[in-house]
Amino acid sequence: MFLLRLLSRNALRHRLRTLLTILGITVAILSFGLLRTVVSAWYAGVNASSAARLITRNAVSLVFSLPIAYQERIRRIEGVSAVSYANWFGGVYITEKNFFPNFAIEPQSYLALYPEFVLKPDEKRNFILDRKGCVVGRKLAERFGWKIGDNVPLRGTIFPGNWEFVVRGIYTGAEKSTDESQFFFHWAYLNETLKKSIPRRADQIGVYVVGLKNPQSAAEVSLALDATFRNSLAETLTETEKAFQLSFVSMTEAIVVAIRIVSFVVIIIIMVVVANTMAMTARERIGEYAIFKAMGFQGYHIAGMVFGESLFISLTGGCIGILLTFPVARKFGEVMGNFFPVFQVEKMTVYLDVIFCLLVGVVAALFPTWRAVRIKIADGLRRVG
Amino acid sequence: MEKPVIVSVNNVSKSYSRGNQPVPVLEEITFDIARGEFLALMGPSGSGKSTLLNLIAGIDTVDSGSIVVDGVNIATLGEAELATWRASHVGFIFQFYNLIPVLNAYENVELPLLLTPLSRRERREHVETALAVVSLTDRMDHYPSQLSGGQQQRVAIARAIVTDPTILVADEPTGDLDRVSAGEILSLMARLNAEFGKTIIMVTHDPRAAEKAHIIRQLEKGVLNNVSA
């Protein structure tokens, strides 16, 4: 108790210096937390992917489609529990700035394979029954103020034309990591329109989503599936949903690495700043440490005072930084919602924040402690007065 | 009847090095201090009196010789043992009081007791007694910056006596005080010696301060010259 009182009073002896140091730590921990969350958001799709789903696409490139006729052959493969499909539609709502992912899907099988998209039963039924209906994520609906029954026009880019949809359902995520900013509509609507306007592009899908009876059999089923279509006009490439999502992230790997490096550099910089503060503090108090030693206090008592003060400063700044990370991340997520549909501060980020606060406090105190403990009492006392 | 010896300094030599050159400070010093004695060490600047005081107080180590305090040869103690020994055997009174500025008078006096196994209640009793001895009970909540120089030195004296140490060492205790405050401090030290039987070893330049001592020893160029009683 006495030590805590001494530490807190010592820490506040140079209020401005201490407050500026605490502010620095707060900003550093906040920055670290946000940068880590940006990286996590980058991988949100990967983390949200299921081990029980495979994605089958054209072996040449994702740009090329696959025939709808593959569906039944895939369903017959050993280990497959369900098959659905989706097309990346790439529609634009009013302007390109309003980007959000939109897919043409087969509603019943797709929603069955994605139980994380939670729809009210009546909304689900209405969506399935209305060929021009669509379901949108909660965040997307909030972003544009859409309600059930609203008409939503999309301008086609990959599939030219103006497309009209009626909002029949607003899904919520079963998990925090579920993307609530997507837009789904009937593949049948797309296909019927294409049959009339561009018949050669009809009866084609972008990817198959394959449900597995046993997630452990992913490798065998993938091999079997691709073997089924080997030497056909549209060979397939099947991978786990996680691998599929990772292939998108890997395109921007350099940016992610850069963000990670910057987040650690921030911590190193603040470590140097706190070390400087503690070095100044210890230099000013050499005389006092000598007095403590003269009275019989030992090296470990002095070390406790220096380490304690350093940890007091770093943990105070760190705690404020951690507490601020949550509201700032929420605001950041709202503003950047179209880029990062899932922007959640992970537990691991908080754990790392705490570890780095402790590390900063300890490392910053090492050299000042070494000096304070080694000081000869007679030499230290000469500095008083 | 002769008083028992509490401090015995035997052939103590001490030198410091300036560059590679050893500079002798004390040479073959030998003398005894009796229990309950009030000794003043005098001498010109650089004569080695503060060094001698530091050696007796165990905050510096001898090059050769021995210093026995209350039966313990402190020249043979390691750093940690010496710290433990100082905590229970030595009370320090410095020229510049050396109070901890962020602690109030009560907390400053309590500091040495934190190294003892005393309970909080027992510590409070000791601190209040010590502050009563120096007549500062009413100022125990004051911080050093809220006290005059004389009052700060009285708090420092309370801190020095709170553990009831074997010896009190004072290095120029009145050096930073005006004449009136210096007189009060010297009277207080004389009272500690007379009423409580404290053994006091005081380094001073001030002949008026030395007058309060029973014995005055003169140091000159590291050699103990004469004794006046």
* Helix-strand sequence of chain A: HHHEEHEEHEHEHEEEHEEHEHHHHHH
The order of strands across the largest sheet of chain B is 6-7-8-3-9-10
Distance between the termini of chain A: 29 Å
- Give the structural class of chain B: alpha/beta
Mean pLDDT, all residues of chain B: 91
The low-confidence parts of chain B are none
Main beta-sheet strand count, sense and barrel state of chain B: 6 strands, mixed
Instruction: Give the class-level CATH name of chain B.
Output: Alpha Beta
Taking all Cα atoms into account, the compactness measure Rg of chain A is 30 Å
Rg of Cα set of chain B: 17 Å
CA-based shape of chain B: globular
Q: Which chains have the largest interface?
A: A-B, 23 and 30 residues
Distance between the termini of chain B: 17 Å
Q: How much is the average pLDDT of chain A?
A: 92
CATH superfamily of chain B: P-loop containing nucleotide triphosphate hydrolases
Secondary structure: number of strands of chain B: 10
The global form of chain A is: elongated
What's the domain count of chain B? 1
Fraction of residues in H or I helices of chain A = 55-70%
What percent of residues of chain B are in strands?
A: 25-35%
